[in-house]
Specification:
Elements: H1 2-34, E1 39-40, H2 43-74, H3 82-116, E2 120-121, H4 124-146
Antiparallel strand pairs: 1-2
Helix pairs in contact: 1-2, 1-4, 2-3, 3-4
Organism: Paenibacillus hemerocallicola
Transmembrane segments: 6-30, 51-72, 92-109, 129-146
Protein name: Copper resistance protein D domain-containing protein
């Protein structure tokens, strides 16, 4: 059972990071294509954000749920190493923060893109949030990998 949970955990993490990376890479390409530091309201930018939410949010939930079940399955009690404490508490906090933060900012960005009707819309806050979440996720993965 633990092996299947680990598979779900790692697969969810890959999909989640992949979706974040896609947003961080593709949205600036839209800016360069329009020749300005803003994205013109088009269905493509809105669709990118919607697809990101459809991929990243369930993947993050899978990472959280599989992680909780793996920690329960380990049954270490109070004698957990520091890296496992960081993974448990820090990882859970990052996932919940990411779900709320990117969900709210993504919804606001999509509303602005839809309401703009061809005008320029800045999405730097959404991109910055996505990049920040990526850095936090990779920090947790580094700590767990090094077993600090």
């Amino acid at each position: 059972m633990f092996g299947f949970l680990l598979f779900l955990h790692l697969a969810g993490l890959m999909v989640w990071l992949g979706a974040l990376l896609a947003v961080v890479v593709i949205l600036p390409m839209l800016y360069k294509q329009s020749g300005a530091a803003t994205a013109h309201a088009n269905p493509f930018a809105s669709r990118i954000i919607r697809v990101f939410g459809m991929l990243a949010h369930p993947a993050a939930a899978i990472v959280l749920i599989s992680g909780v079940f793996m920690i329960i399955d380990m049954d270490l009690g109070q004698d957990k190493p520091l890296w496992l404490e960081i993974m448990e508490k820090g990882g859970g906090t990052v996932i919940l923060l990411a779900l709320a933060w990117t969900g709210i900012l993504g919804r606001k960005a999509r509303k602005r893109l839809i309401a703009a009707a061809g005008q320029a819309v800045t999405l730097t806050g959404y991109r910055t949030a996505s990049a920040s979440i990526m850095v936090l996720i990779l920090s947790i993965v580094l700590i767990v990998s090094l077993k600090i």
